[in-house]
Design a protein that fits this description.
single chain; about 400 residues; alpha/beta; about 30% helix; globular
Amino acid sequence: MTDETARRAGRSPGDGNGGRAGRGRRGWRAATEAALYGPGGFYRRPEGPAGHFRTSVHASPLFARAVARLLCRVDEALGRPPVLDFVDMGAGRGELVTGVLAALPADVAARARGYAVELADRPAGLDARITWLDTPPAAVTGLLFANEWLDNVPVDVAEVDPDGVPRLVLVADDGTERLGEPVTGAEADWLARWWPLPPEEGLRAEIGLPRDLAWARAVERVVRGLAVAVDYAHTVGTRPPFGTLTGFREGRETAPVPDGSCDITAHVALDACAAAATAHPPSPAPCDTAHEAHEAHAPHTPFGTAQEPSSRPALPPARLLTQRAALRALDITGARPPLALASTDPAAYVRALASAGEAAELTAPGGLGDFGWLVQPVGIPDPLVGFPDPLA
């Protein structure tokens, strides 16, 4: 590696032999897990994710209303069961589950049971109807919804060395990097299938296998209903050549530094996650809990312990949609109110105009509207069918 290549990668020239700058380095997956979810980690902070970045949930209450509408469709497809589950994965401070329960019609709300799955402590004053968990319920009949959860499941990073070989990127707590051993085993197989790297020095990829496993195990909890993952995403034909690993701090994008001072995130290979959930049930073999804990934003998650193989029939193929298409299917369009309303009911016109602006942000090309929705039905028809918009 040349000194210039090292500088571009945020490395110290000549530190590849384990000098002082190279001490304490480890893969990005382990470093991110400790920085986000370890003692004093970023996601354990009292201000929560909303103190550092906005998701669709924070952009507008319309998002929670759309998810509530989706839950109602799932309810109808299930035949209006006596108990209807709504599981909010990576719940932050419970903003989405709170908004969804508040938006439900009274007859549905009376049967709804809300779960917030999050590592941080339960916020004070949260609706008593919401059960706060560090792992998802064992059996879900209803809707499991993961909004910007998978992007925070830590992953390792691979980079092509001067000989054209993908190697693990090792990182120190200050963010400096060097290349480690060649990528092998299941991680190499994943790269070959989902993110093949040409033999060109400096090309990078995030190895999404932990996210595939996390999603498959979350879907495994749904007995009947729907599982949805929403994230900024890419597919095999649109992988970025240098990866997407980045950080966020106080509302601004920043360099990813695994010291607990910032969020560390990367776009999600949602097509790989979709295939993992439908290929076969997650392995019942015990997993490395030190690396699996983040999969539910919790230490010692049951995702990392032995489980019985599922007897559930094979799942239908999942669908990938843009958020724009998904929200339009749920009646969030961003259309401006008729101008005539301004003269007949000015206050209603102003409210409708504000709502249209919020809807436009949620569906905007080049922004939140380009997020991917991974929709996995389990024992019910797809409640968003009829609105095709494959994620390009």
